[in-house]
Amino acid sequence: MLDAAAVGEIFASPTPLSFLGAFRKADKGHGVACLFGNYSGDMMNAKAGMLLAKDEGIDVKYVVSKDDIASAPADMKDKRHGIAGLITMWIAGGQVAINGGDVDAVCQAATEARDNTRSVCVGLHELTIPAVGHPNFHIPDGEYEFGIGHHGESGIRNYKMQTADGIAKRMTDALVEDLGLKSGDEVFVMLSGLGATPLAEQYIMYRAVHKILADQGIKVLFPHIGNLATSLNMNGIALTIEKLTPNLKKWTAAFEAKGTQVDGL
Description:
Elements: H1 16-26, E1 32-37, H2 40-55, E2 60-65, H3 86-98, H4 103-115, E3 117-125, E4 143-146, E5 157-160, H5 164-179, E6 186-193, H6 199-215, E7 219-226, E8 235-243, H7 246-257
Parallel strand pairs: 1-2, 6-7
Antiparallel strand pairs: 3-4, 3-8, 4-5, 6-8
Helix pairs in contact: 1-2, 3-4, 3-7, 5-6
């Protein structure tokens, strides 16, 4: 999906020099598309790296994912963070790039994927950040937390523990509403464990998600289940739904046909 990655410390943005190194690696003389999540540190360091790249004659354009519905309300979408939905941007942009699209075309494809993708996470047990040595929030026994972040951020509300079907309904309904999905729509669905969630439980959750969507006449074309977008040792689930436009359906189908799966199996 990508030619290079800028790598930072755990739950920290890559440095400007790390971004610059990735730009150098990816550059083939026709410019670079930088696709990353909407976080203040990433924005600051990526833009600093882009200025350094410009000094070296490397043209860099960027698109940020904003799929996390819990990080900001619908009327403040530009403030939302990017989490697992980044993968849909990489698939779309990567397919355009591999078929000869220029940087602008790659960024347009990534933007189309970004605008049609939403994600939400739930946590059953908090994670421990190695540098801190303890969790930075607590999920009481018998509860789960809705809307947790991928970097150890607490969620927006706690609920009494439910069955997998009940949790899946709360997550799926929230994404369906935010995306404005309706009967007849086709979607890409990615359900990821957050690090400490058994694969069997992930499939139980996906079964419920699939049924909820099917009951509303929404067809899942490309399901992916596995540890795809984890968060250290967090016990929980990330659910991502992308509404498939004709372009997104074409790009995703081409990606799938190459046998490059996005699942952990």
